[in-house]
Q: What sequence folds into this?
């Protein structure tokens, strides 16, 4: 199978990021310029530094998940793929970050059904991180306590199903009558096996901690 060359791959990612930045400035140039003009250089420096720190922490989490699945690719290539996901941050629920799985396949032959759970687990731990941070302000906004409890229950129920072969298989069998589920049942079960590796207590603790600080 032919994969993207390193040079073409890098150019593809850089081009995508450049287009993303240009579109932001074209659409909101006036408001962006006005906001920046009101900030002093020290604050801009701090904001840029924090942004890079955020990217670094999230990249470390990305690498951690890849290594949990024994997906080992050059750090430079991994970072470029990770950056490609940032350009998809504007999509609803960041669903566009699935692009990272596609690029892993095109550049290194990693099966999409194996890496896509990394993207899903990133989002899941982000939700957990936000929920944990929300606990800090819960006393001031008790009216939202029920919503927060609902989020925790939903997330942990999802984790339970994804890591329980018995209940996951039962769910797949129940929905197996749907053509798309029945057709991809084998792939779905492979995704569940991947989830069990990514959603261990240790893995969740480490990755959610990273999400809290990023």
A:
């Amino acid at each position: 199978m032919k994969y993207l060359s390193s040079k073409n791959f890098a150019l593809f990612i850089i081009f995508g990021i450049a287009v993303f930045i240009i579109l932001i400035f074209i659409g909101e140039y006036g408001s962006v310029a006005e906001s920046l003009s009101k900030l002093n250089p020290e604050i801009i420096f701090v904001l840029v530094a924090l942004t890079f720190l955020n990217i670094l922490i999230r990249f470390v989490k990305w690498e951690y998940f890849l290594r949990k699945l024994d997906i080992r690719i050059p750090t430079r290539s991994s970072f470029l793929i990770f950056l490609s996901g940032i350009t998809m941050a504007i999509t609803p629920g960041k669903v566009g970050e699935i692009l990272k799985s596609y690029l892993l396949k095109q550049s290194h032959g990693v099966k999409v059904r194996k890496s896509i759970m990394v993207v899903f687990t990133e989002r899941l731990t982000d939700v957990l991180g936000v929920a944990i941070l929300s606990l800090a302000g819960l006393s001031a906004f008790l009216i939202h306590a029920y919503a927060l409890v609902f989020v925790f229950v939903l997330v942990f129920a999802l984790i339970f199903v994804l890591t329980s072969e018995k209940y996951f298989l039962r769910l797949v069998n129940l929905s197996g009558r749907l053509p798309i589920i029945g057709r991809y049942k084998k792939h779905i079960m492979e995704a569940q096996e991947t989830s069990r590796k990514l959603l261990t207590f240790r893995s969740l603790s480490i990755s959610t901690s990273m999400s809290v600080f990023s």
